UniProtKB/TrEMBL annotation:
Protein name: GuaB3 family IMP dehydrogenase-related protein
Pfam families per record: IMPDH (PF00478)
Keyword Ribonucleoprotein appears in the UniProt entry: no
PANTHER family in UniProt: INOSINE-5'-MONOPHOSPHATE DEHYDROGENASE (PTHR11911:SF85), INOSINE-5-MONOPHOSPHATE DEHYDROGENASE RELATED (PTHR11911)
Amino acid sequence: MRDLVEIGMGRTARRSYDFDDIDIVPSRRTRSSKVVSTGWQIDAYRFDLPLVTHPTDAVVSPHTAIEIGRLGGLAALNAEGLWARHADADSALARVAEAAKDGAAPSEVVQRLQELHAAPVRHDLITEAVRTVRDSGVTVAARVSPQHAAELTPHLLSAGVEILIVQGTIVSAEHVGEDSGESDTDPLNLKDFIADLDVPVVAGGVSDYRTAMHLMRTGAAGVIVGHGYTPGITSTDQVLGIGVPMATALIDAAAARRDYLDETGGRYVHVLADGGVRHSGDIAKAVACGADAVMLGAPLAAASEAPGRGLYWTSAAAHPSLPRSRVAPASAGEHTGVDLRTLLHGPSQDPSGTVNLFGALRRALAKTGYSDLKEFQRVGLTVRH
C-alpha cells in the first residue's frame, strides 16, 4: 500500500525516498570482491562497469569518451553540445573556465555558455567527433534532444553511432512541438522513430511508473530515470518545481520493467539512474533500487582529463531562455586532478566515497553476498525514518 500523507484539507501526497533516506541490508553471507561481477549488457553491447556518462561537455570529449570506453564504461557525446558547434571546442570550453576563474557572477558564466551554444550545430563537426571515437574501437553513444532527434539521428548513424540516447529534462512517448518559443514542429513519436532504427535507443528522463511503462512500450532498449540532479548545480526543482526522489523513482521504474517483461513475454528494458549520485554508496543504492547502470556527471568532472577543467554543468545550463543548471566546481572538487582510471577503479586515499567508485560497488556486492548486479537488485533495504 502506498504511503500517503495529508498535506492539507482534501489533498494527499505520496511519501517518497531519496538515496540518503535508505540503507542496504547485508545478507547472511559475504564474498570476496574478486569473484563478483559489475558487468552489464544492453542489446549486443557489453560493459565491465554499469556506467553511462551524463552527456555534458564538462565530462565528455572525444578523448574522454575513448578513455571511459577503455576503462569499461560508456560515454555519451552530446550531439548538440560544443563539440558539434565549434571547430575548436577546447578553446570554447576554456572561455567558460576563464569566466568562472575571473570571478564572474554565476549568471554571467551561464550567459557565456549560452552564447557559445548560439552557434549552429554543424553536422560535419559532430560526424568528426563520433568517427574519432568509433575509430578507437570503443562503443559509441550520442545524445540528442527530442526536439532535434529526427534531424540529427541520420547524421549520427552514418558517422557510426551504436547506441542513441534521446534525453531531455522530461521525455514522454510523444514529444509535441518545441519549447524554444519557435513555431511548432511535427511531433516526435518515439514508437515510430525507434521502429525505423537498427540501433538500440535509450530514452528519458522519467520519474514515475506510468511514463516509464509508456517509454518501454515504444521499443526503447533503456529508460533513463531522473533529471541529472546534482545538489548545488542543477536547479530544475527551483526553476520548474519538479523534483525526483531517486530511490522511489527507480523502484517504480523497476516495477514497470517487471510488468512490461510479463506483458511482452520476456522483453527486458534497462533502467538507468541519472541523478542523486554523489558518493560510491549512492551507486550501490541505485543498483539496489533496480538500476542496471548509473549515469554519472559531476563525480567524473573532477578528473584530470575532464574537458570542463574542474567545472561541471548539465546541457540544461545552455538553454537559451530558461537555464536549469549552474556552472560550478565539480562535487568532488577537492580531488580535481585525479585521473579517470583512479576515479573509477582506484586505488583511493580518500574515505568519502568520491574515488574508486566502482571498486566500492564491487565491495558492496561482496559484503552483502551477491555475485552480480542482477542479484544485487534483490538486496534488502531499510528506511531511516
